[in-house]
Write a structure and sequence with these properties.
CATH class of one domain in chain A: Mainly Alpha
CATH architecture of the largest domain in chain B: Up-down Bundle
CATH superfamily of the largest domain in chain B: Butyryl-CoA Dehydrogenase, subunit A, domain 3
Mean pLDDT of chain A: 95
Mean pLDDT of chain B: 93
Number of strands of chain B: 9
Helix content of chain A: 40-55%
Distance between the termini of chain A: 23 Å
Strand order of the largest sheet of chain B: 1-4-5-8
Largest sheet of chain A: 4 strands, mixed
Number of helices of chain B: 11
Low-confidence stretches of chain B: none
Order of helices and strands of chain B: HHHHHEEEEEEEEHHHHEHH
Shape of chain B: globular
Largest interface: A-D, 55 and 65 residues
Radius of gyration of chain A: 21 Å
Radius of gyration of chain B: 21 Å
Strand order of the largest sheet of chain A: 1-3-4-7
Order of helices and strands of chain A: HHHHHHEEEEEEEHEEHHHH
Strand content of chain A: 5-15%
Number of helices of chain A: 11
Helix content of chain B: 40-55%
Oligomer: heterotetramer
CATH architecture of one domain in chain A: Up-down Bundle
Number of domains of chain B: 3
Number of strands of chain A: 9
CATH topology of one domain in chain A: Butyryl-CoA Dehydrogenase, subunit A, domain 3
Shape of chain A: globular
Largest sheet of chain B: 4 strands, mixed
Structural class of chain B: alpha+beta
Chain lengths: ~375, ~400, ~375, ~400
């Protein structure tokens, strides 16, 4: 039993964080907003060169073959920076979907696309039925389409995109329409169903980790503002009301973290038994981030309500990611359904599941 | 206690209802934070004025109808029921208007109130300055007396509607040796005066809902001074009282929003929703109604001669938190579609309206005195807790 | 349209309030706790002499024939004082039930008992099916029993009481068992059903008004404590955190008041259409009072957690009254059921119901 | 990261489980705030000690088992799972014990820790004084040095368990000329010493869970001084760190309570319930689990040599609010029966337990530093906001 990250995991996170701090600034994000496609090719290329796109790709396809708990803090770092490019969608959602397929049912076609993803040659996004829109579909080379239990790999030039405008200008959403057929189908049936279930969970958890990162940055920004900005001759942060607004955010964030990390571990070791852990993570991180957005705007006062102030770059991302890959209602309902089952194993000894307990009498 | 409208009040309601049915534009006007939308809303104000509906509580001499507060509430109920456009001149009619009514000279009333009620002149407010947000007494913008004029220099910020408005009212330091809330004067300044520069500030939705105003040797006549020189603070406090108090956010606004929320909920309640959604919908509807009941109670008291006291700070907290709650709940009901600002979907206007309302609701706990400051006021003035 | 109380209504309230302030002190309440029956005969006699028991009794039965909105602030005053004696149960719940019966179906028997209630000779309590227990049943001369739609008047010596201990020592609860029969039955069928429905509403609203009063006193006590008690060399009340705890209570109380008063008016003029108004009142007042109890204990600190400090006299009453005459769940559900009806008249113009609006198209 | 127990840890769990199955009393013991219940709980402590389960993290030499923190968590999980009695000596084992382990002399450890672990000596704490609740540095209770003794005079209040305990530990002013947190000493005092008077203070449920202690020329040996004279403050702060930190409220307590809440909810969910109840039940279960996960994370970090920092203030807020929420939700589920403390009904023990737990939960946000003070600490020490 060891609930800590190792040095390598911290190193991955720190490397990405350093890159993002230097390269993805509020100013550069605003430049993307003013551009047609919202996409910074240089940043994308650098991120791929950094190896981020290879982390979840098996070693035999030219990747690093890392586990989901190895990279969860990297996703958190993407949230901290409010990175617009769909690195999370490509590297941490689409790639592990194909990697999981490849592990069950190896094929040259999948190996090739995985290798192209690792190098950054291909950019692959996921069109799951739970999401009405795909972010940055116009920049992708391929789309992984859910069609019932089927999994299709579709060339993006065979897709029709209907663009919609998100409240978060960093997101470029489109409805994706295309004609899946026998040649585009990678798998289906029980395996397809399992892959999509695991993908929903990875997507939800990836959003949870980003929300956690977004919340952290929002609180940092508010702390800095409250320390610098003076009213009535003192920094506004000396007011207990301001302190407590931010302390409440800190408490929520502190207790969402281990929930997110536990879910990452569960997805890594038992992807088919991760529903509860993932839903818990999505709900906790969303609530923490929504509170942080609200309180951070409040601490900034009128400035927090302006376009010029950078707070809304993060706040709007929170409002958008909250509802992707299942909103809070979807995830709370999954937990509720489980809790009301008489066979659910509840109680302090089951924190880490039944496989840890020898004399379980009930079987679920 | 008699919670039933008189036949006259019922007639009045039907009169407004009929008039609005005929006059409210069928298409939603563009936001008044755009040039086009501002012009359209200005036209609407003129239309309202043509029916003497500009500000029903004002005397007929100023384009009003001499209505009492209950009639005003009825007017507001019908106004929101009809989905009529938002009031682009709210700074004028709800804030400056009542102030002029109390502190203006007959000439000032004549000059400004009628133009306001008739939709001719639109007003911005100029309270805050950079470095003086919640601390309104830290004003540095100067108005130096020069014969029959003031020469104004300095800067205002968070001035709502200033981008397209005609005039601004605000507090200026007329006694350069004064500090804090002494030596301030309440002055009206035309925004087209030489030396005035308006820099739009886009808000959360990207539109310039407020502005910075720079004053560079702006000369205004002392005829534009409201009340006495140096009496600005107490006059402004009374204006702020109106703002926090009865009229800024009429209950009908939230009742209409909560009605729409219930309708949205009825449509979507068979979907998979947040487990807390039923509770939130019920709470929003109840709270909007409670706010209406409270306002009727206050209006009844005021009609019997009472004054608005520190309980107006309770109002500010209540409606601003209610507004956030209503819109958050609506976005929960919309789920993954909630983030879409524009699309070609047929029900997009519903989604956009909720999203824009949600963004706007974020400002509620901040402006007109943050809710933290309102809680201090309640604790100290309503409950009597020690100041320090 | 006039949402104010008149001088007479204020006078009734003030008279009762003055009496309670002088006679029902925390010390005298604690003396009741130590007594066998928890009942102060002298206080009861004085309250009846003051005319409080006659307010809801028709003039032709020796009462004052007041409306429910005339006396709602008297109930609030009982809450403010945390009065243990069942004045509310006798005068403001049992009496109007019999008065309403008498108005529809006059009888000598009911007139006699009403007259005896007005003078204080009889003490009548109500055993509604919504409440598992009756408070002070052992002190009553008669019990009004709900049995389906039947309304029975039963001599208390024909009742078997099973006592239970409430967390609020001021309350003396018992399950009441008795044998209703043809001679005890006052009415039944449709009238019985209407009477019990109106009684449930009066009971719920009476609790709401008491909860409002309890909340007011709790906040007053906390304000006094926070002004007097010093920590770190200053009154604890200078801390913004303490101020905001109490300001939040004040906001809830301020907005519960008109809701309670509106419900009282509705019960007076349209008792059969008062469900929504009453449930709204019960929910709002309960939430205000529960918040006041929580925050008041918090402001008092460790003292607030002791038996010696008077706070718990009020707090425990809050916790008890919250669930009597329908808990918050019962009342929220009534509102929810109404809101989801397509024919419900919603919107700003219906604040005071449809009878105020001429061109209502729908009929409910 | 490896969130699976080792075979040794699984064996350890089974060993505790078997032992508890044999030894936990079948009938619930009376409250340890009664004389009878205190005696029964003292007996239970002795039973625990007989199996070397008194405090598993302590060295074997002191009656412990030299367990690490993960094993301690496993022990706690099984302890609450088994419904074993509350630990009457928690002041000793969770607060004073770790303090002695860090600051005690070998002789003091020998003298006090073994007696604590073996269930021989029960401890009360003596932090607060009248007029110094949250302001712990305002201590006036004196300990004047007199040769090899201290003479203690003054008063302590809110001393938990003091009514029936054997000893009290606390802070006393040993330098009469000092002020605030200087010149304080951490001293252990036997409650049967001449000059000690204990006045019970009944708590919300009527039972004397704490007491005032009056010291009137009480003579104690300087052997009872922990650490150096005048070093009391920093030692006490470290004790308070334990209190807020890992060990005071083990997550298993809340996980067990939230499990019971889910069971109660399953039984009653077809009744008419508060619209927010589903949400509340789910939230309670999630939050209890989050608290457990957070504790495992902290325990893992500490095992790798990290120290508990200001995040322990987050713990205090989290578990105390969770405890209130769990019990409020349970009372909502019980409806009109929730207020009943005693009756002859067959399921009364369930109702009473929830009600008593609810009353107890009210103290959570107050003791061991109010949650307001914890929020200050988080804001200033964890987030770095300016102090004043």
């Amino acid at each position: 039993m060891d609930f800590t990250f190792n040095e390598e995991q911290y190193f991955f996170q720190q490397t990405l964080k350093d890159f993002l701090t230097d390269n993805v600034t509020p100013a550069s994000i605003r430049r993307r907003w003013d551009s047609d496609d919202g996409f910074d090719q240089d940043a994308w290329r650098s991120l791929c060169e950094l190896g981020t796109s290879a982390t979840q790709i098996p070693e035999d396809c030219g990747g690093l073959g890392l586990r989901f708990d190895d990279i969860i803090m990297m996703i958190q770092a993407c949230g901290q920076a409010a990175l617009p490019e769909p690195l999370v969608e490509h590297s941490f959602i689409a790639a592990p979907l194909l990697a999981q397929l490849h592990a069950s049912q190896p094929s040259e076609r999948v190996a090739d696309i995985l290798a192209a993803m690792a190098s950054g040659e291909a950019m692959v996004l996921t069109a799951s039925m739970i999401n009405p829109y795909v972010n940055f579909a116009h920049s992708a080379t391929h789309v992984l389409l859910q069609f019932g239990d089927d999994l299709h790999l579709i060339d993006s030039k065979d897709c029709t995109l209907t663009h919609v405008t998100s409240v978060d200008r960093s997101r470029r959403l489109a409805e994706v329409k295309c004609q899946p057929n026998g040649t585009t189908c990678l798998t289906n049936g029980r395996l397809g169903s399992e892959l999509w279930q695991a993908t929903l969970n990875r997507g939800a958890l990836a959003n949870a980790a980003q929300l956690l990162g977004l919340a952290e940055t929002l609180v940092q920004m508010a702390v800095k503002h409250a320390s610098d900005r003076e009213q009535f001759g003192k920094p506004v942060g000396v007011n207990q009301a301001v302190k407590h607004l931010l302390a409440d955010c800190a408490v929520k964030i502190e207790f969402a973290k281990p929930v997110v990390y536990r879910a990452a571990y569960t997805l890594a070791v038992a992807p088919n038994r991760a529903d509860w852990a993932v839903s818990h993570a999505k709900v906790s991180a969303t609530e923490a981030a929504q509170l942080a957005a609200r309180h951070c705007i409040q601490v900034f006062g009128a400035m927090g309500y302006t376009w010029e102030c950078d707070v809304h770059i993060w706040a709007k991302r929170v409002w958008a990611l909250a509802n992707e890959w299942g909103d809070v209602g979807f995830h709370k309902n999954r937990i509720h359904e489980w809790l009301v089952q008489p066979k659910a194993l509840l109680g302090p000894e089951f924190t880490f599941g039944r496989r840890n307990i020898r004399d379980v009498e009930h079987i679920d | 206690m008699e919670l039933i409208y008189t036949p006259q009040q019922q007639d009045f309601r039907m009169e407004i209802r009929d008039w609005l049915r005929e006059h409210v534009p069928t298409d939603k006007l563009a936001s008044f934070d755009t040039a086009e939308g501002f012009a359209a809303h200005r036209e609407w104000e003129k239309t309202l004025a043509s029916g003497n509906w500009g500000m029903v509580t004002w005397p007929e001499a100023y384009g009003g109808r001499g209505c009492d507060l209950i009639e005003w509430l009825i007017f507001e109920e019908e106004y929101y029921r009809a989905g009529a456009p938002l009031r682009v001149n709210q700074n004028g009619i709800f804030l400056l208007g009542p102030t002029l009514m109390e502190y203006g000279t007959p000439a000032q009333k004549e000059r400004f109130i009628s133009a306001m009620a008739s939709g001719q002149e639109m007003w911005a407010q100029g309270w805050s300055e950079p470095g003086a947000g919640s601390d309104m007494a830290a004003i540095r913008c100067r108005a130096d007396r020069d014969g029959d004029d003031f020469i104004i220099n300095g800067q205002k910020i968070w001035s709502t509607r200033a981008v397209f408005a005609d005039w601004v009212f605000g507090l200026f330091r007329s006694d350069p040796s004064s500090s804090r809330h002494h030596g301030l004067s309440f002055i009206l300044v035309p925004l087209n005066a030489p030396g005035v520069t308006v820099r739009p500030i886009p808000q959360l939705n990207g539109l310039p809902g407020f502005a910075e105003i720079f004053f560079d040797d702006v000369r205004v006549s002392a005829e534009n001074l409201i009340g006495g020189e140096g009496e600005g603070w107490s006059i402004a406090m009374s204006t702020a009282g109106f703002e926090r108090g009865l009229m800024l956010r009429s209950p009908a606004r939230f009742q209409q929003a909560s009605k729409k929320l219930v309708e949205l909920y009825r449509e979507r309640r068979n979907d998979i929703l947040d487990l807390s959604i039923e509770d939130a919908v019920v709470k929003c509807y109840m709270d909007a109604e409670a706010y209406a009941l409270s306002t009727y109670q206050t209006a009844s008291r005021l009609q019997q001669g009472a004054k608005i006291g520190p309980e107006s700070s309770c109002n500010k907290i209540y409606w601003s938190e209610l507004d956030i709650k209503i819109h958050e709940t609506a976005l929960s009901l919309l789920g993954a579609h909630a983030e879409v600002e524009q699309s070609d979907a047929p029900d997009q206007s519903v989604v956009s309206a909720w999203l824009d309302g949600f963004l706007f609701s974020q400002s509620g706990p901040i402006y007109a005195g943050t809710n933290e400051i309102q809680r201090n006021i309640i604790a100290e003035r309503l409950l009597g807790l020690p100041r320090r």
